């Protein structure tokens, strides 16, 4: 065989379905989605080369996702695991999400078994390490994070045909981490930066979240939500989509309390509209509008 149909590989693996689902899952993030499509194309071509018998080494697929909280890094990791599984680069396609505490022990002899246990669970899929820079704490001579890093480095090199590692965290801190750990930096093939969402994108995210919870904004509530986003984005500890979800959870609690009190006070029944419509007052009761503390 001297040629191969790349579209057939796409069809057989249903790659387009995964990429389309990424568009459904995430608002905006155009640069990220473009990069994922590039990686998908690379995976397809690498698979085609293998099927044609072109000699090549196992591609390095370890990645680093950088960006602020709530920008979709975990969601993209899940979709990436699907892509890798459907194209045969990992056996299972599951994602094991961990932080430093899952890998690093507190006393001598504790770190190695913890790290190896996590790696065993992740084999055949993706290991997603959030806030990966916390693994390295040079200010503490008795810290055991370096031991976990050394074990990770060995597995990332020797088992890259059965495990993909994705490191995640703030870009500036990850840059410092890589400068301090050149061995880890050399093993990361793909760096993807996740931008913050714009004002309009965050409002679209709020619309999708409300709809997904089977609620709806009335006109005043949606205007208030837009103003909430404008105020909240300028406060500390803003976490993009995560902060929007937290705000909506609190608004729904206020809505429930309002509907319950109204029905109890008047003795009337609550309609479907009453039970599923967020009003302006449910949003504007937030401390963000009243000069209070930040809402996380």
Give an overview in words:
By secondary structure, this protein is α/β, with parallel strands linked by helices. It has helices at residues 6-13, 15-25, 30-51, 73-86, 100-103, 111-122, 145-158, 171-180, 182-187, 199-212, 219-233, 241-266, 272-276, 280-284; strands spanning 63-67, 95-98, 126-130, 164-169, 190-194, 216-217, 277-278. The strands form two sheets. The chain has a five-stranded parallel beta sheet with strand order 2-3-4-1-5, sandwiched between helices. Strands 6-7 form a two-stranded parallel ribbon. The radius of gyration is 23 Å and the shape is globular.
What gyration radius follows from the Cα positions, in whole Å?
Answer: 23 Å
Query: Residue share in helices?
Result: 55-70%
Mean pLDDT: 90
Number of helix segments? 14
Give the biggest sheet.
Answer: 5 strands, parallel
User: Which structural class should the secondary elements be placed in?
Assistant: alpha/beta
Give the CA-CA distance, first to last residue.
Answer: 58 Å
**Percentage beta strand:** 5-15%
Q: How do the helices and strands follow one another from N- to C-terminus?
A: HHHEHEHHEHEHHEHEHHHEH
Shape: globular
Low-confidence stretches: none
> How are strands sequenced across the largest beta sheet?
2-3-4-1-5
Number of strands: 7
């Amino acid at each position: 065989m001297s040629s191969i149909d790349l579209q057939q590989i796409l069809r057989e693996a249903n790659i387009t379905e995964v990429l389309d689902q990424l568009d459904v899952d995430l608002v905006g993030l155009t640069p990220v989605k473009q990069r994922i499509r590039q990686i998908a194309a690379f995976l397809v071509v690498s698979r085609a080369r293998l099927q044609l018998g072109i000699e090549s080494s196992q591609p390095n697929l370890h990645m680093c996702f950088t960006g602020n909280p709530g920008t979709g890094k975990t969601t993209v990791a899940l979709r990436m695991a699907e892509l890798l599984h459907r194209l045969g680069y990992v056996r299972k396609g599951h994602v094991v999400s961990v932080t430093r505490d899952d890998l690093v022990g507190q006393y001598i002899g504790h770190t190695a078994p913890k790290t190896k246990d996590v790696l065993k669970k992740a084999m055949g899929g993706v290991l997603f390490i959030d806030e990966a820079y916390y693994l390295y704490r040079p200010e503490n001579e008795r810290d055991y994070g370096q031991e976990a890093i050394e074990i990770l480095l060995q597995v990332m090199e020797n088992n890259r045909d059965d495990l993909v590692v994705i490191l995640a965290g703030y870009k500036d801190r990850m840059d410092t981490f890589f400068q301090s750990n050149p061995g880890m930096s050399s093993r990361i093939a793909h760096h993807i930066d996740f931008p913050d969402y714009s004002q309009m994108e965050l409002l679209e995210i709020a619309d999708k979240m409300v709809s997904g919870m089977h609620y709806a904004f009335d006109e005043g509530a949606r205007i208030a939500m837009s103003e909430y986003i404008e105020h909240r984005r300028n406060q500390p500890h803003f976490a993009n989509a995560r902060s929007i979800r937290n705000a909506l959870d609190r608004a729904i609690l206020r809505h429930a309390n309002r509907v319950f009190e109204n029905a109890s006070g008047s003795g009337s029944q609550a309609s479907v509209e009453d039970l599923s419509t967020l009003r302006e007052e449910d949003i504007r009761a937030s401390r963000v509008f009243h000069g209070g503390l930040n809402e996380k």
